[in-house]
């Protein structure tokens, strides 16, 4: 889409600057300059950068730097100042942009008068931003063209690509282990243990366990995919949180009994706990969190489920229902807490797999809570236990 900006100059001469804004890749360039009727002597980039033009370019939400043919910076917008610092005008670009690839691209664009591309890595502390840089010549009247250098942040795209690669690698690894075990069991049953009834029974049990593990993994992958697809669609059904939690507790009673864990459900007696939600997905959330508390809270332990109403939750800007699931287990190191909701992230890989975990449970919980416009808070003290709190907007 093209937008034009007209500036009336002396002698009824109109300078028309066309800006091209591409919403797909967030790039901008000065496409064409046309002088009608009279052409003042020495008209160049100085005329282009009127106050109004500067204001327009300053409002563009990506770093832009205009460099004269002599290498001096004529103008830099606010976003560029955030990357390279303030008061850039008048400085030589080699004193500001010190990465060789970018400097080479700008030099080539100045000398050839053709667009060039490069990349620029901007590191601030532990974080790093990667920019795709376009050096576009801006037509001048008599001198060599000025160069408009635009910086497009491509870090989110690279992060998404990395996440996809990691996801494929993790899924492959998770499936390869049980498949390798199954292949080994089958070869053993076909060979040395072919006529050993006791070995057959033992290996078949192991094969069943590995098959169930793969089934859980595939089920969680499908569930995660569905939740991510629906994440932007907020559910409208009015449900009672208490009844949903009651169902989860009933489902997990046998698991708690096997682990000698006692479940305590503390619910408000005087107030209704209604929220807008998807009953099946919220049951999945509470079942997952309560089951984790049972498994990792320690044998002969206690799991407390607390439901509390709050008249005002600042993060939700309104009334909310707090559902907290806490245990008295070993606790979680603060180092691990920020990454607990990542796909396939496990604190103890061996222990998690032994207990049937896929590493996707908390990722599913996070996406479901997000879909309900809620919050998930995790707190833990080593040696004292952990608390997972789901905060949902009250209906």
Describe the structure.
The protein has three domains: 2-152, 2-Layer Sandwich (Beta-Lactamase); 154-230, Signal transduction histidine kinase, dimerisation/phosphotransfer (DHp) domain (Helix Hairpins), CATH 1.10.287; 232-395, Histidine kinase-like ATPase, C-terminal domain (Heat Shock Protein 90). By secondary structure, it is of the alpha+beta class. Helix 5 (155-190) runs antiparallel to helix 6, helix 6 (197-230) packs parallel to helix 10 (361-371) and helix 7 runs parallel beside helix 8. The two termini are 43 Å apart. 27% of the residues are buried. Mean pLDDT is 80; it is low at 1-48. It has helices at 45-48, 51-58, 78-84, 100-112, 155-190, 197-230, 241-258, 279-296, 349-354, 361-371; strands spanning 2-9, 13-22, 27-35, 64-67, 73-76, 116-124, 127-138, 146-153, 238-240, 262-266, 274-276, 302-313, 318-327, 375-381, 385-393. The radius of gyration is 31 Å and the shape is extended. Strands 5-4-8-7-6 form a five-stranded antiparallel sheet, with helices on both faces. It has ten helices and 15 strands.
Topology:
Elements: E1 2-9, E2 13-22, E3 27-35, H1 45-48, H2 51-58, E4 64-67, E5 73-76, H3 78-84, H4 100-112, E6 116-124, E7 127-138, E8 146-153, H5 155-190, H6 197-230, E9 238-240, H7 241-258, E10 262-266, E11 274-276, H8 279-296, E12 302-313, E13 318-327, H9 349-354, H10 361-371, E14 375-381, E15 385-393
Parallel strand pairs: 10-12
Antiparallel strand pairs: 1-2, 2-3, 4-5, 4-8, 6-7, 7-8, 9-11, 12-13, 13-15, 14-15
Helix pairs in contact: 5-6, 6-10, 7-8, 8-10
């Amino acid at each position: 889409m093209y937008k034009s900006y007209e500036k009336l100059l002396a002698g009824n001469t109109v300078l028309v600057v066309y800006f091209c804004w591409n919403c797909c890749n967030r790039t901008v360039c000065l496409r064409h300059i046309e002088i009608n009727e009279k052409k003042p002597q020495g008209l160049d980039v100085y005329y282009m950068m009127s106050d109004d033009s500067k204001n327009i370019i300053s409002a563009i939400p990506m770093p832009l730097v205009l460099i004269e043919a002599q290498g001096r910076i004529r103008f830099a917008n606010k976003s560029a100042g955030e990357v390279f610092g303030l008061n850039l005008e008048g400085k030589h670009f080699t004193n500001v942009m010190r990465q060789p690839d970018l400097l080479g691209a700008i030099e080539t664009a100045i000398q050839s008068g053709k667009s060039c591309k490069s990349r620029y890595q901007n590191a601030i502390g532990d974080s790093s931003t990667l920019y795709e840089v376009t050096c576009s010549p801006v037509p001048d009247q008599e001198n060599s063209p000025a160069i408009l250098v635009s910086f497009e942040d491509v870090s989110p795209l690279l992060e998404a690509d990395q996440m996809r690669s990691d996801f494929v690698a993790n899924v492959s690894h998770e499936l390869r282990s049980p498949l390798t075990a199954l292949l080994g069991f089958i070869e053993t049953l076909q060979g040395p243990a072919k006529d050993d009834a006791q070995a057959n029974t033992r290996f078949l049990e192991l094969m069943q366990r590995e098959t169930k593990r793969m089934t859980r993994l595939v089920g969680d992958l499908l569930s995660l995919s569905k939740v991510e697809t629906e994440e932007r669609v907020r559910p409208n059904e009015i449900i009672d949180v208490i009844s949903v939690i009651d169902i989860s507790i009933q489902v997990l009673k046998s698991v708690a009994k096997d682990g000698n864990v006692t479940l305590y459900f503390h619910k408000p007696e005087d107030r209704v706990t209604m929220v807008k939600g998807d009953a099946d997905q919220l049951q999945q959330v509470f079942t997952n969190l309560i089951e984790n508390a049972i498994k990792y809270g320690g044998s002969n332990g206690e799991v407390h489920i607390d439901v509390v109403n709050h008249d005002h939750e600042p993060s939700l800007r309104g009334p909310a229902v707090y559902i907290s699931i806490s245990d008295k287990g070993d606790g979680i190191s603060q180092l691990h807490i920020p990454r607990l909701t990542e796909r396939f992230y496990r604190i103890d890989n061996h222990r998690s797999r032994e207990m049937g975990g896929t590493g996707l449970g908390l990722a599913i919980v996070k996406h479901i809570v997000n879909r309900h416009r809620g919050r998930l808070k995790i707190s833990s003290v080593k040696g004292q236990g952990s608390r997972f709190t789901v905060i949902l907007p009250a209906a």
